[in-house]
Amino acid sequence: MGPVEVRLLEVLKTIVCQSGLVLLTARVHDGDYVYVFVFAQPKMCIADMVRVFKCNSARVLFVEFSQLKLRLWGWSLMV
Predict the structure, then answer these.
(1) What pTM, to 2 d.p., does this model score?
(2) Residue 49 belongs to domain with CATH number
(3) Most buried residue among 16, 29, 51, 69 by CB atoms closer than 10 A?
(4) Own/partner long-range contacts of 49-58 (Cβ < 8 Å, ≥24 apart)
(5) pLDDT-derived band of residue 79, with 50, 70 and 90 as boundaries?
(6) Domain ranges, residue 33
């Protein structure tokens, strides 16, 4: 696992703690896919949770690993 993947897992854990969720498991697979299983209250919208994960993790990773912008189309993380 490379430094980007390690940092991403740290960021996801931080986001979960700040959002009041419970992280059951998270895994970066082949550097392209991220699997995150969380426990959330039924009133929370899945789309909102995904948006929070993507926006916050992308912001941190793009600052710390600027070379990611060159690898991703449109400089954004895709769903």
Answers:
(1) 0.81
(2) 3.30.70.1290
(3) 16
(4) 49/19, 49/21, 50/79, 52/15, 52/19, 53/12, 53/15, 54/79, 56/11, 56/15, 57/8, 57/11, 57/12, 57/15
(5) very low
(6) 3-75
Distance (Å, whole) CA 67 – CA 50: 23
Q: Which pair of structure tokens corresponds to residue 41?
A: 């209250």
State the CB neighbour count (10 A cutoff) for residue 53.
22
Domain count for the chain = 1
Instruction: Give me the pLDDT at residue 57, please.
Output: 92
CB 1 within 8 A of CB 28: yes
